[in-house]
Specification:
Elements lengths: L1 E7 L4 E9 L2 E6 L1 H8 L6 E2 L4 E4 L1 E6 L1 H7 L3 E2 L6 H13 L7 E6 L12 H7 L5 E5 L4 E4 L1 H4 L4 H4 L7 E3 L6 E6 L4 H4 L7 H17 L2 E6 L3 H12 L6 E7 L3 H6 L11 E9 L29 H13 L4 E5 L2 H13 L1 H4 L7 E4 L8 H7 L2 E4 L4 H12 L9 H6 L4 E3 L10 H10 L17 H7 L2 H6 L17 E4 L3 H4 L9 E6 L2 E5 L3
Helix pairs in contact: 2-8, 3-4, 8-9, 11-12
């Protein structure tokens, strides 16, 4: 039992204790009541007034990519192309000729304005190794000539000049591949052997515990699901995984008879994942109006409305919900249109449809989320890195970016996540972004009118995410009978306020009634 804590209620917090029996919560109440319920022999952890939250549920991850990134070159802190190339050069010196160099996290938004990445600059940094560097947003990949030679030219020519970037003078690929064209590079990567995949996921689970994450909504291919299944069979899956279905895996899922929400407490089938557009970082988010710096360009449509409707219907008839990736306001509107047009099919099935990211929403579309019962799956942690690009690309329309408070005011359900490994898995970073809308302790908040309360932000990372995966009656709250997934913070951020978030850390994570992470308590 956890005693002398401050227990999050969904509206605030109250002093008390939590009793746990097996993997579920037995009782929640005042210390005296819980002590009498459990008896003198029960194991106790005195929290000394610290805040107890439900285990965080990250509503949008790419968890296996996070696991693999632990062994990849981390470029997320590089502030320029020069710094990025220096990191590659250092890695190349430690890598045997011919072996791949994999990296992730470079962000051109942070670089001084240049001509953009090129294979020639990578060639100088690593002349004897194929190099593949995935951008921070995961929507672009930068390769060198060694890697480019492995891709048949006829395959490259199948993609538009928006997806394969060409040198304006030589008319040859620069080495930068965006959106669907990036798959040409990803195909060169073989699926890792099962044992290595299990080891990687087991390591990543420990990172999740450190951040208080006990559940994830994961968006990756079916072989990742199979790895989670193998861990579960061995008794080593210690996260609650809601695993989505990639478009390319839909037929396989239908043949297997999978339906959204089916599974057990460890692993359940999630929604079909579709794409309406690209990303802001890669300048491929689909917009209603042209980009400020490109008057003839409104981003990229990744699928037509007709195709999206066909797939949503196909999935819904089989009992599978859909999550549509939509970042630009045109993409968000299209996703809403698709769900509205197909509502007569999916609503009857009790499916909970969702839009992933929803970073820019036209004001007229805000009330449609609530009216259509569409979940807004948002990642406020992106906000910090997007301030510059949104101003550069969207100009005076940035007041429509990350409209969290407006979504809540319109009655929408928010499920909050990180998009890890694109951004940090740490929920407190996303909560801090949603509550303050600024990345430093001091300084001006970015569109402060869209800040939300701490209680709302915590709820979106717990109750909202639980609702999005159909498990609001078993997790996301401190209630008797609910799964005993709990997190204790070093500071009571509800008492001390938003400024305390950046100085707070998780000091205890309980998963299914077991302590899986403990620090200084």
């Amino acid at each position: 039992m956890l005693t002398q804590g401050r227990i999050f209620t969904g509206n605030g917090a109250r002093s008390g204790a939590v009793a746990i029996q097996g993997k579920r919560i037995l009782a929640v109440g005042k210390d005296k009541e819980i002590l009498s319920t459990c008896g003198p022999t029960a194991k106790r952890i005195n929290l000394s007034g610290r805040l107890v939250l439900p285990g965080f549920i990250d509503a949008h991850t790419h968890f296996f990519s996070l696991a693999l990134n632990l062994a990849r070159l981390d470029l997320s802190q590089c502030q320029s192309e020069k710094e990025t190339l220096l990191a590659v050069r250092k890695k190349a010196k430690k890598t045997k000729p011919g072996e791949w160099i994999w990296g992730r996290g470079w962000t051109m938004n942070l670089w001084p304005h240049t001509g953009g990445p090129s294979k020639e600059s990578l060639d100088k940094a690593a002349p004897n190794n194929p190099v593949s560097l995935i951008s921070g947003d995961g929507h672009s990949v930068w390769i060198n000539s060694c890697a480019l030679r492995l891709i048949p030219s006829k395959e490259i020519k199948k993609f538009s000049t928006s997806e394969v970037v060409y040198n304006s003078e030589t008319h040859k690929p620069t080495g930068l591949f965006k959106e669907r064209a990036a798959s040409l590079v990803f195909r060169l990567v073989q699926e890792p052997p099962l044992e290595l995949a299990k080891e990687a996921l087991a390591r990543a689970q420990k990172i999740a515990y450190k951040f208080g994450v006990t559940g994830i909504h994961n968006f990756e291919r079916n072989y990742v699901r199979e790895t989670f299944e193998a861990l579960r069979e061995e008794g080593h899956l210690n996260l609650r995984v809601f695993h989505a279905i990639a478009e390319d895996d839909l037929d396989e899922a239908l043949e297997a008879g999978r339906k959204t929400y089916w599974g057990d407490e460890s692993l359940r089938t999630g929604p079909l994942k579709l794409f309406a557009d690209g990303s802001l970082g890669s300048r491929t988010a689909h917009m209603l109006w042209p980009y400020l710096n490109r008057p003839d360009y409104r981003g990229m449509e990744m699928a037509s409305r007709k195709k999206l409707e066909t797939l949503v219907k196909k999935a819904a008839r089989a009992g599978i919900s859909t999550a549509i990736h939509a970042i630009g306001d045109a993409a968000v509107r299209k996703a809403l249109d698709v769900f509205e047009a197909t509502r007569n099919i999916w609503a009857k099935k009790g499916l909970r449809q969702r839009i992933e990211h929803a970073q820019m929403i036209h004001p007229q579309d805000l009330p449609r989320f609530s009216r259509l019962n569409i979940i807004a799956s948002v990642q406020p942690v992106h906000l910090f890195g997007d301030i510059g690009p949104t101003q550069e690309c969207w100009g005076d329309r940035t007041d429509e970016a990350y409209p969290l408070k407006s979504l809540i005011s319109s009655g929408a359900c928010l499920a909050m996540g990180s998009d890890a490994p694109v951004k940090s898995l740490h929920p407190l970073k996303g909560i801090h972004a949603a509550v303050t809308r600024r990345d430093k302790r001091k300084g001006r908040a970015w569109h402060p009118e869209e800040k939300i309360s701490l209680v709302r932000a915590i709820s979106a990372y717990t109750q909202g995410a639980a609702f999005a995966c159909g498990e609001e009656k078993t997790k996301g709250r401190h209630r008797p009978g609910y799964l005993a997934d709990l997190v204790v913070l070093s500071q009571d951020i509800l008492k001390k306020g938003a400024r305390a978030i950046v100085d707070s850390e998780v000091i205890l994570t309980v998963f299914g009634g077991r302590v899986v992470y403990r620090k200084g308590i």
